[in-house]
Amino acid sequence: MLNVKLGRGIVFLFLFASVPAFATSDSLMIAKIYEHSFYRGEAYENLRYLTKKIGHRIAGSERVAQAVDWSKGLMEQLAFDKVYLQDVRVPYWDRGSSEEAYILGDAQRLKVLALGGSVATPEEGITAEVIEVELLSDLRKYGENVQGKIVFVNKPWDESLVETGIAYGLNSAQRSRGPAEAAKLGAVAYLFRSLGSGIDDYPHTGATRYVKGIDSIPAMAISAIGANRLHTALEKDPNLKVFLRQHSAWKGEVLSHNVIAEWKGTDHPGQIITIGGHLDSWDVGEGAHDNGTGTMGTLDALRTLMALGYKPKHTIRLVFYMNEENGVHGASQYGLQSKQKGEQLIAAIESDAGGFAPRGFDIKGGPEAVAWIQRSWKPLFEESYWVSRFLPGSPGVDSGVWGKHYPGALMFNFRPDPHRYFDLHHTAKDVFEAVDKRELQSGVAALASLLYLIDTHYEVLPN
Ligand SMILES: [Zn+2]
């Protein structure tokens, strides 16, 4: 008997030593949030409207202007204290009519998309021989042979990496810097194996850049299947020629907006927690996972807390950033204006990694804050909700940009399951049908729960 009692006593003490006193009320609140999100969540239906009625929405376009107006209206239906637009000037790049690519003498077309920001080919197209490399650095050994050729960078995706974001990062500089590097050596066009996982016939677009003083040459992404086909054809005939044509162009600057809503805090109204994601998308597919789920998800997280009668202590500010995909001008403007007004932006949550089942959050904060969160908040999520990743990491792209003005802000980057994101990313496959309602609403609940925890316990968090 004595042993059993002693045993229970030890367990009892251990529990109380390891679980903070507020854990029970927090667990109850989180349970309510999840229940509400699963039964009465609205993110999925809002996403349906954004993707099906408005569709893809590149910064500067007519459609993104529609998305701005519509999402402002959506925010105005909720109990925010203030909803407004913040002016942002954005560059407008237009793809023009569809791209063409084929190997001369081969009737089957290669699937390509102009890279974002690319110039057009001449109207008659470009016909040239091809130099294939895996890495831009391999180009040097071809020296003058690059003159007049199409440079084809064909580096396959590293399928071994569970963290698909790392696989993306490994090769993204070849997309952005490639055209300038190839042009330096006299290339006439740049053909880039799509930055995406899986082997299919969908090219992935994405931003590329030119360098002042170096010729701007047309740049295209080719599907993985197309890249493999071209590779095999080049093995048989290294002197084959490829035809490329595209019509994209910069259309100058356009006035656009960040869409912002504020929910005033009761105790610390001057301290602001920013939550949101980017509203623009690439101009293919429907911008569903990138980033309809991030905007509709963060909005629904706030609506959920409102529906449960929650009153925030700090001001919660929802921001739909403009132009993340090709300039990040919205987040720059947000940071600049906040700084000029002397606002206190204390914390942030960003959602821009898709609407798949939530796995956790990357945290940008001091080591003590991260350790505290791992000890106190992670247990509230991991067993019941399968959300267990709370690791130091980078904030999202938008928070990272405005965060330069706020180096002390505690930032969270929402991390859903990473396996399928880069199959769809920047392709025609990123459509509403690729989003699962239950996974999306589960993410909404994770976002709302984390926002609730930050707001409720910010004062006791170590710096
Ligand atoms: Zn995105």
Automatic annotation (TrEMBL):
One of its GO terms (molecular function) is carboxypeptidase activity. Residues 1-23 form the signal peptide. One of its GO terms (cellular component) is extracellular region. It is found in: Endoplasmic reticulum; Golgi apparatus; Lysosome; Secreted. SUPFAM superfamilies: Zn-dependent exopeptidases (SSF53187). Keywords: Carboxypeptidase, Endoplasmic reticulum, Glycoprotein, Golgi apparatus, Hydrolase, Lysosome, Metal-binding, Metalloprotease, Protease, Secreted, Signal, Zinc, Zymogen. Coiled coil: none annotated. GO terms for biological process: proteolysis. Residues 258-442 form the Peptidase M28 domain. Homodimer. The monomeric form is inactive while the homodimer is active. This is Carboxypeptidase Q.
